[in-house]
């Protein structure tokens, strides 16, 4: 069998969730959208079920996958519902939904509910993607509060630059959020922080935090942060060396000859490529871990294979284990070598079998 695989450490996932909840000090919504950032939504939700206060998904399809797997915890639709047809499903499956646009408020006012609802009303505090403007927010809150079947509402917003630790954007968005919150009834529950804010901006912690990326042990904070040091990588993407060749200096390697040897070079071919989710444009010099020792990618990544420099690894050879990211090599570091993010690399995992440990 092809030796490529992704090992998912569910203990590390639980550790990271507990860290998130401890930092948040309230309840923590475990964000498992996009198949739990490539880690497998059902397996991750089951692993967290005993601990988690609830799960966050992007859409109905993802919520139903969890319900069909027997997950009974609260589930929040972070992108809300897309049309009136979904309202009955929200209700039947006891989902909580984000409401972020005036047209959704209109639909809810026309809905005949048979069950109590929980709605998370989203403010656009400056990201300018989803959310009601500060002017729209309070009227929408009042309209929804007037619906007797809406049992509980949470005020929420989302940050655009919480991973930039010296940028004024996060405190600025927080000030906008607080000023709107001040016009709502005292004690209104709020949810603001994603992973980066939760770890690096303690002033953003409210009743509910919404950790995603950090659950999987990754971050892209641009400065040191004690909480980030406590994360444990959940996914290890690894494969093996399936061929070795010795090249003279001056020989090109792989498609487009993007790398030419500068010395007699021993090249290892690894069974992992961009069809597995490894970034195609990772540059020569991107770190890998060869039998536990730091090494480097050389040459262009192919669909099914990539090449590494074994010249300084005389003990390595056919069958050597190559970690492409994992506990010994942060996925964010690999991502940065191709202008990618850890979000994209994790969520882009394909083809390789996942093993749970
Ligand atoms: C994806 C998402 C999160 C989680 O963000 P991370 O940066 O992965 O922690 C939180 N809130 C909302 C609304 C999201 O869409």
Automatic annotation (TrEMBL):
Domain Alanine racemase C-terminal: 234-357
Superkingdom to which the source organism belongs: Bacteria
The species this protein was found in: Luteimonas wenzhouensis
Gene Ontology annotations of biological process type: D-alanine biosynthetic process
One GO CC term on file: cytosol
Family under the similarity heading: Belongs to the alanine racemase family.
EC number in record: 5.1.1.1
InterPro entries: Ala_racemase (IPR000821), Ala_racemase/Decarboxylase_C (IPR009006), Ala_racemase_C (IPR011079), Ala_racemase_N (IPR001608), Ala_racemase_pyridoxalP-BS (IPR020622), PLP-binding_barrel (IPR029066)
Chemical reaction(s) catalysed: L-alanine = D-alanine
SUPFAM superfamilies: Alanine racemase C-terminal domain-like (SSF50621), PLP-binding barrel (SSF51419)
Coiled coil ranges: none
Gene coding for it: alr
Gene3D superfamilies documented for this protein: Alanine racemase (3.20.20.10), Lyase, Ornithine Decarboxylase, Chain A, domain 1 (2.40.37.10)
Name the record gives this protein: Alanine racemase
Enzyme class: isomerase
Pathway it works in: Amino-acid biosynthesis; D-alanine biosynthesis; D-alanine from L-alanine: step 1/1
